[in-house]
Structure formats: structure tokens, C-alpha cells
Amino acid sequence: MKTSALQQARAAYQPKLPKALQGAVKVQEGAPTQSVDNQEEIKALFPNTYGMPLVEFVPGETENAKQMNVGIILSGGQAPGGHNVISGLFDQVKKLNPNNKLYGFLMGPGGLVDHDYVEITEELLKDYRNTGGFDLIGSGRTKLEKEEQFEKGLEIIRQLNINAIVIIGGDDSNTNACVLAEYYAAKNYGVQVIGCPKTIDGDLKNSQIETSFGFDTATKTYSEVIGNIERDCNSARKYWHFIKLMGRSASHIALECALQTQPNICLISEEIEAKDQTLNDIIENIAEVVAYRASQGNNFGVVLIPEGLVEFIPAIGRLIQELNDLLAAHGADYADLDKDAQRAYILAHLTEENRATFETLPEGVSRQLSLDRDPHGNVQVSLIETEKLISDMVGAKLARWKKEGKYNGKFSALHHFFGYEGRCAAPSNFDADYCYALGTSAALLIASGKTGYMAIVKNTTARTDEWKAGGVPITMMMNMERRNGEMKPVIRKALVELDGKPFKAFVAQRDQWAKETCYVYPGPIQYWGPAEVCDQPTKTLELEQEK
Ligand code: FBP
């Protein structure tokens, strides 16, 4: 593979490991755990993997030399650092016993079911260490949930003499990892399943998981570009930039980027939902800021919009819920209809309130909400052009205000969507180290016989050598939620907490950012140099972990 000079220099980077993982380890077990909610239901659904203790690795006397083969799967959206989870796992598995083998299943969970795999060797891995992307083995969104998939997977597991599968994924994929762990445990197949917290969205976190990997690099990458736009904006002083940011449901990415770059406006979906705001309220608030800035001679600004916004506007959220159930119940007959017939079908089946909301939406948006969900039942929010919808509506409102003599500025809007630009960026030192430690922990969890656990690394705002590593039972993070019209056990998604420190820090400053021009230009991620430039975690993590 042809590699750039930066890639070559990065390949030589040795990720820093917590002290506890540097040598031989022993397992320290905590008290039994409980699920975050619906304990009885979750316990009944996961009788073999419920209630297990938290695990921490501490320095020990003996190295575990158990012979084991491991399979690894990358699941869902790309996140910077995935290759380092594989590197950490590979190095630790080989350290435990050089005869151990690591197999990568290709293109996501589907690779296990379809028996597509590659053996990961040092020769193959060496060009991927500390690089972004998932291209070493590819990723996919096949949902592992059916017994025949588990049994099909078992065939290749047996053929390759695999003892454990590591699934690197977000909340949905780790939920599936837990279901698979439970299934193999119930059948006494002797196959362990370990999860690993991945997603740039930052919504897989809780009392045990401080952050999901990739969030650090992705938000730093977006913040660099937002900063560049702010600087351009402040130089030309003639455009309003509407920037949609990835992140599916939660607004963690938008909030973190706002804390890093101080834009004029940043919408936080969770706040909009809590305040029961309508689309019109949102438009009015933005238009007021535009009008105020225009009155000061500032016909420019930057607005950050979280990708999942529409789902959180309560009336639209209710509509989406009903559409989800409707589409789940009428899959095949609906899919065969043409565009107009699908619209007519939906209008005929919606309740009155939701029909009214559906009819008020611009056609492009209502159409997008009527399309197929992803395999986990999610609306594909990354395809909805919210940034255009909002700026068009703000433009229309300002034009009305102009006619009424309430506003006399210029409004020229530009649109951006930052998502794919950050998902495969070369991992920051934080993500490179964090992921390597997660991979190492996953190997140690396997070596200590655990299944149904997610690898974790904590104390991540301290120096790397003080980080703590271990595992959390996945059932501990679960509750029951409605999915595709049915109640299902799932890992609880972490949304932005309105009484949390990151949101409060934003609220304390946002009025000033709206009126004045307070932009901050973070610049590109740095890999070599002073720790305060190269090794800083996100502001979200710093504020959340602040003692
Ligand atoms: P994961 O939850 O799988 O990590 O995916 C994250 C994400 O990047 C979301 O932010 C985004 O909405 C989605 O993937 C887009 O996925 P795709 O590129 O498959 O449409």
C-alpha cells in the first residue's frame, strides 16, 4: 500500500498504555450489577449474562498464557481509532501466546454470517496502525439478531477454532453483542462475546463508559473546519453559514464543536424538545439573532445544527414515531408503491394531528421521513437537509420582517454538512491511545473467560498511564425501549443532559456569542508537540469529569 509521509510517521507512534495494562494483570471483580431500568424484564431475557460484576485489571504476578483464537467485527459507522482497537487486541492476543490467531470478519457483522474473513497478521496490520478508517476489514450495518445468523456464525467460529468474538460498535451493535453472548452462553457453546464502545456520536456513555471512541477526533476535525469557516466569515463579513453536524440523535457533537469554536448560534435538539419548541419558534429565534447582528452592521454569522434536530421537534418527533410503527407494520406492500402512492398511503393512515404536521413539512423532508429506516429502525437523518430547510425558513421570515419595516439587513446563506469528513480522520493521540487500551482490555477480558462484557477504559482526563481498564457487563447498561413497534432490550442512549456541565457551560456563554463575534479557531489536530496541544481530551469530557 502506498502511504503518505504522515502515515509513515504515524505508523511508528507507539500508543501509550495505562500502567495497569503494561505488564501482567489480574482481574479484580466488583459487586454484582443491575440494569439501569426494567431489571426484571432484562434479567428474564438475559438469565446467563445478567448481574455479573464490574471488572478492573490491576497489575498481577502471572501472565495468562491461555491459547485462544479471536474474531473481530467492525459494526456501523466508521469512527477514528478502529484500527487501533484491532492493533491493541492483536498485540495483546499475541503477547498472551504467539500461536493465538486474530481473524477479521469482513464488511461488518454480515462477514460472520457469510463466512467472509481474513487472518490479521503483523504484515497486514502494520500499515493500519494509528490510521483512521475501518478499511482494514470494512464495516457494515447488518443487524445480528436472528437465531439462524447466530448458528451460521457458529459454523465458521468452529471451523477457525475461535474462542471469542469482539464486536466494535455503537449502542445498537453492542446490544446485539449482548444478545449473541447470551445465546451462545445459553447453548453452552463456549464462545465468548465482548463489545467495544465506538461511535463518533458520543451517545454511548454512562456511569462506566466515559466516552465512545472516535468522538474526540471527529469533533476536533469538525471544529478545525468550523473555525476555518468562522475565520472566512469574519474576514468577508457577508455570509451566514448554516452547518449541519453529524451525530444522529444526540447533539453531543454540535455541543462539543460549539464549546471549541464559539459560533453565533448552536441548536441543541434535547433543549428544543424539553422546551416543546416548534419549528417556527426555532426559526424566530435564529431570525432575531440575524436581525440583531444586522442592526450592529454584522450581516454574517455561523449556525450549528445537529443532524437529528427534526426528530426532537416534539410535533415532528410524534409524527416519526407513528411513521416508524406504520412502516414496520406495512413493510412490503408499502415499499412496492410509487412516490405519490406512498405519500397518499401515509396520509390515509396517519392520525389527524400527525397528518397535519406531515402536510406542513417541505416535500423533501416529508419524503425523507417516509423512506426506509436503517437496519436498526432509525430514520436516516444524515439525508435530511435540515441546514437548507432552516436557512430557507429564516430567509422567508426576514423577508417578511423587511416588508413590515422590522429588519433592514442583508441575508445571504451558505450551507455545509460535516459528517463523513470526520469519521475516518487519523485518530488524535487521545483516540489512538484510548482505542489501543480498549483493544488490550478486550483481549484480557477474553483471557479471563468473560462474556457479555464491554471493554472499558476510565479516568481518561488523567495522564494515560493513570487510566484504568476493565469491563462492564452489557446488561448493566440496558433498559426496555420501543423499536419498530415492539418493546426491546437496548442499551440506553446518552443524550445531552440539560443539567450537565457541558450544556451549562454553553448556556452561560451563548448570548454573548450570538451578539458579539467571539469565534475561536482550534486549528488542525496535532500529533507531536506539547501535551496541552496534542493530548487534550474534548471539552465535553473535561467538563463531565471535572471533580
Ligand atoms: P454509528 O452509530 O454506527 O457509529 O454511526 C454514526 C453515524 O456517523 C451517524 O452520526 C450518522 O447518522 C450515521 O452514522 C450515518 O450512517 P451511514 O453513513 O451508514 O448512512
From TrEMBL:
<feature type="binding site" description="in other chain">
    <location>
        <position position="307"/>
    </location>
    <ligand>
        <name>substrate</name>
    </ligand>
</feature>
<dbReference type="InterPro" id="IPR000023">
    <property type="entry name" value="Phosphofructokinase_dom"/>
</dbReference>
<keyword id="KW-0479">Metal-binding</keyword>
<dbReference type="Pfam" id="PF00365">
    <property type="entry name" value="PFK"/>
</dbReference>
<dbReference type="InterPro" id="IPR011183">
    <property type="entry name" value="PfpB_PPi_PFK"/>
</dbReference>
<feature type="active site" description="Proton acceptor">
    <location>
        <position position="201"/>
    </location>
</feature>
<feature type="site" description="Important for catalytic activity; stabilizes the transition state when the phosphoryl donor is PPi">
    <location>
        <position position="198"/>
    </location>
</feature>
<comment type="subunit">
    <text>Homodimer.</text>
</comment>
<comment type="similarity">
    <text>Belongs to the phosphofructokinase type A (PFKA) family. PPi-dependent PFK group II subfamily. Clade 'Long' sub-subfamily.</text>
</comment>
<protein>
    <recommendedName>
        <fullName>Pyrophosphate--fructose 6-phosphate 1-phosphotransferase</fullName>
        <ecNumber>2.7.1.90</ecNumber>
    </recommendedName>
</protein>
<feature type="binding site">
    <location>
        <begin position="238"/>
        <end position="239"/>
    </location>
    <ligand>
        <name>substrate</name>
    </ligand>
</feature>
<feature type="binding site">
    <location>
        <position position="171"/>
    </location>
    <ligand>
        <name>Mg(2+)</name>
    </ligand>
</feature>
<comment type="pathway">
    <text>Carbohydrate degradation; glycolysis; D-glyceraldehyde 3-phosphate and glycerone phosphate from D-glucose: step 3/4.</text>
</comment>
<feature type="site" description="Important for catalytic activity and substrate specificity; stabilizes the transition state when the phosphoryl donor is PPi; prevents ATP from binding by mimicking the alpha-phosphate group of ATP">
    <location>
        <position position="172"/>
    </location>
</feature>
<feature type="binding site" description="in other chain">
    <location>
        <begin position="246"/>
        <end position="248"/>
    </location>
    <ligand>
        <name>substrate</name>
    </ligand>
</feature>
<feature type="binding site" description="in other chain">
    <location>
        <begin position="420"/>
        <end position="423"/>
    </location>
    <ligand>
        <name>substrate</name>
    </ligand>
</feature>
<keyword id="KW-0808">Transferase</keyword>
<keyword id="KW-0460">Magnesium</keyword>
<dbReference type="GO" id="GO:0047334">
    <property type="term" value="F:diphosphate-fructose-6-phosphate 1-phosphotransferase activity"/>
</dbReference>
<feature type="binding site" description="in other chain">
    <location>
        <begin position="199"/>
        <end position="201"/>
    </location>
    <ligand>
        <name>substrate</name>
    </ligand>
</feature>
<feature type="domain" description="Phosphofructokinase">
    <location>
        <begin position="69"/>
        <end position="325"/>
    </location>
</feature>
<comment type="function">
    <text>Catalyzes the phosphorylation of D-fructose 6-phosphate, the first committing step of glycolysis. Uses inorganic phosphate (PPi) as phosphoryl donor instead of ATP like common ATP-dependent phosphofructokinases (ATP-PFKs), which renders the reaction reversible, and can thus function both in glycolysis and gluconeogenesis. Consistently, PPi-PFK can replace the enzymes of both the forward (ATP-PFK) and reverse (fructose-bisphosphatase (FBPase)) reactions.</text>
</comment>
<keyword id="KW-0324">Glycolysis</keyword>
<keyword id="KW-0418">Kinase</keyword>
<feature type="binding site">
    <location>
        <position position="77"/>
    </location>
    <ligand>
        <name>diphosphate</name>
    </ligand>
</feature>
<keyword id="KW-0963">Cytoplasm</keyword>
